[in-house]
Design brief:
Elements: H1 16-19, E1 36-44, E2 47-54, E3 62-66, H2 76-85, E4 89-93, H3 107-127, E5 134-139, H4 142-152, E6 157-163, H5 169-175, H6 182-197, E7 203-208, H7 217-225, E8 231-236, H8 244-247, H9 249-263
Parallel strand pairs: 3-4, 3-5, 5-6, 6-7, 7-8
Antiparallel strand pairs: 1-2, 2-4
Length: 269
Amino acid sequence: MTEALPMIDYSPLDKAFLLQFIFYPRKDFTPCPENAFDLSVAVEDNVSISCRFYTGHREWPWILYFHGNGEVVSDYDEVSRFYHQKKINLVVADYRGYGASTGTPTLTDLVNDSHVIFKEVREELLKRNLRKDLWVMGRSLGSMAALELASQHQEEMRGLIIESGFPSVVRLMFRLGMPAPAMGRQKIDQECLETIGKIFLPTLIIHGEQDSLVPVENAKAIYQHLGSLQKELLIIPSATHNDIMIVGFKDYFNAIQRFIETTDRTPET
């Protein structure tokens, strides 16, 4: 059994003047589509996170998806159809203060809440007699939650997908020109890399070649540090941070479908 890794302490970065540049909460929330259902996950007293399950077929595999910092669950009402075309079910989780979720987002809460969400999503799937084995995907800021879960729940996950992600939020802060506190930032960056090195799950990394917000070097760093022997890096030519799905539509979804199908052939641990 894989031993859980120590959790990274993000508290030195959880300062209001920094978080305003990292999180962009929107309260947008649409009525639940006919083929979906919503789940409110209690992560703390009086704080809950909204998750939306987009069901294409009860026998299809599920991806638990953590979105980017300017997105909300309901942005995926239409996007989920593309996953269904590849015979993949999708459940998307918000962050504190996003969509119908309550509370105020911090980096510490983002990673801590991901564990509760992971547990509750699996239990909800089991309760509804749906497949409970999960692949976890993180886009941009969501890569923090995805990498966190991969480091702590390797034996309960089938695979990991990182899209437009980064190995360490400290690197993103420098890229944005943010005055990251000197105290703890080098330690956090190093611990992030060490954590990635101890992830042995099958992993697919997708990144835009022309991403100026999170340069492609971030994807390469994740790929290089991953402990997994089964890993793939797909760089979408000409794609930027926010048009990667559109520019690389065919390659993007074909890669995800192929990855799910390949890792679905192996027994669940």
